[in-house]
Automatic annotation (TrEMBL):
NCBIfam families: uppS (TIGR00055). Keywords: Transferase. CDD domains: Cis_IPPS. The lineage of its organism: unclassified sequences, metagenomes, ecological metagenomes. GO terms for molecular function: ditrans,polycis-undecaprenyl-diphosphate synthase [(2E,6E)-farnesyl-diphosphate specific] activity. This is Undecaprenyl pyrophosphate synthetase. GO terms for biological process: polyprenol biosynthetic process. Its EC number is 2.5.1.31. It holds the Pfam family Prenyltransf. PANTHER family: DEHYDRODOLICHYL DIPHOSPHATE SYNTHASE COMPLEX SUBUNIT DHDDS (PTHR10291:SF43), DEHYDRODOLICHYL DIPHOSPHATE SYNTHASE FAMILY MEMBER (PTHR10291).
């Protein structure tokens, strides 16, 4: 950068992706069952939605259930399904009160029928003039999404694909690429989250476990993003 050039601050991010890691470790730290960690994690999601709304972030993408999570114990999977039922009830009320569009991205066929049909119903009745969007990556994996997109295009008989055509065939069709991907819990990897979309995302890794994340920490991530110089390419 020359002496005459000054860095131009990034605007508030349009889209923030979150890997909500650390629920079970939070529970162990507090001497609680792992299931209690998931409950606290869901409570934190409702806070994060409010923080994004207050900050002007219009799209929030959360990694709620990976394709690998189906391999956990039957008790834990059953609890997670009950938590999804509660979440659907809550999100439907939130959507109607605040003009929030709710989207579900993943292999929804793996969910129990009542949950999958509710997800489809909630998405189908989203407000057309939504000001904020919540994307719930559920039964989701980045590699699985790419393969599903390819198979969708093959089934349509498409023989030539550009980026837009491919994006429209993905589970996340219509979602903007995340400006930020934030992972809590101390791990420094994306774990198959938004593989196609994260090429130019700014990555933030926090040691804080998801249920303990504070608004101060989230605001600091946004502040650092605004002051970063984003380079596209090498």
């Amino acid at each position: 950068m020359s002496e005459q050039e000054t860095p131009v601050p990034n605007p508030v991010p349009t889209c923030v992706g979150v890997i909500m890691d650390g629920n079970r470790r939070w529970a162990r730290t507090h001497g609680l069952p792992a299931l209690e960690g998931h409950r606290k994690g869901y409570a934190k999601l409702t806070e994060m939605m409010r923080w994004c709304e207050e900050a002007g972030v219009t799209h929030l993408v959360v990694y709620a259930l990976s394709t690998e999570n189906w391999n956990r114990s039957p008790e834990e999977v059953s609890y997670l399904m009950d938590l999804f039922r509660v979440m659907l009830d809550d999100l439907e009320k939130e959507r109607d009160q605040k003009k929030i569009a709710i989207h579900f991205a993943g292999d929804l066929s793996r969910f129990p029928h009542d949950i999958a049909s509710r997800m489809e119903e909630v998405h189908a009745t989203n407000p057309k003039d939504a000001e904020h969007h919540l994307w719930v990556a559920a039964s989701y994996g980045g590699k699985a999404e790419v393969l599903a997109g390819i198979n969708t295009l093959l089934a349509r008989g498409v023989t030539k694909v550009d980026e837009r055509t491919f994006c429209d065939a993905l589970w996340t069709a219509g979602m903007p690429d995340p400006d930020i991907i934030l992972r809590t819990g101390g791990e420094k990897r994306l774990s198959n989250f938004l593989m196609w979309h994260s090429g130019y995302s700014e990555l933030f890794f926090l040691d804080t476990k998801w249920p303990d994340l504070s608004k101060v920490e989230f605001d600091e991530v946004l502040k650092q993003f605004v002051n970063r110089k984003r380079n596209y390419g090498v």
